[in-house]
Amino acid sequence: MKITRVETWRRRVGLTQPYSISRGFIDAADLFFVRLHAGGEGTGHGSATPSPDVTGEALEACADALAPAALSWLEGEAVPDGGPDRLAPLLAHVAERMTATPAARAAVDMALHDLQAAAEGRPLADLQGRCHDGLPTSVTLGILPPGDTLRLARKHLAAGFTHLKVKVGRSWAADADRLRRLRRDIGPAPRIRVDANQGYDLEEARRLGDLLEELDLELAEQPLPASRDGDLLRLPQSLRRRVAADESLLGPAEAKVLAGTGAAPPPSGIFNINLYGNTRPRSRIKLAHLADSLEYMPAASLFHQQKEYIALRLQRQAKKRPVGCQSLTTRICHHRHARGAG
Fold it and tell me: What is the model's pTM?
């Protein structure tokens, strides 16, 4: 099977529920799409969501890397059958050409995997060996006044969500008050996880440990700035086991440090393995190998097939069940922009 045509396009999509985090306000996502055609043998889709403040990849750099002229070399390339492992030589070529643009690279990587599965007429998750039928997915509640937090939480729980991801990190006192009110209002059953997006200092992170126990919170994501990962070792081990690395986790090199080496204890007990462009699928699989003694939490992609593929492959390779999936946004019009636009 050979690639006969490459399509790319860009959309800025408004969120149905904008939200605030410790470092700003998010009301839209800049999305980049790739569609690979192989004549009548199928099409493959991939997406990129650059994160300049995390990986340093600017939106325009991603756009340039995914421009039709930049990807014209893919036309005529052979995509082998026989499973994703046989894509390795082609993926290595992609990596060489797109070293400085990880989100763009991830989009092409996804599209190649998707094309291979489409040509075989099977979901990508099945091609990898489905280990389970689904994962719990959290929905995000931004930094809001307590009343708005409770209203949104009730709405999402009524819609069937069982896990809430609450953004924190601007004011410790306000965060603690809001979380206590939320737990009282929704009761003990729903899972609550918190994400500080690098917003706390060490003392606030230490106090967060007490709050996790008091309110039965599931985990705390990226409490400290990525530049201060070493300070996590000053936290109690019981708390570190429930700290999820996110902005700190850019690839296998960072994972080796966060997983601990030799006699060094791991600074984080959970890896949040992003599916929205920070690392390409093959690197994310390597992260699972490095996290053999840790838990992991795949973050949602706009392409559910890729999300499920990675979650399944991580479980298969690391032989453990993930903490669950988390949502990047509340809701975005997935299929309208991913499948119907051009």
Answer: 0.80
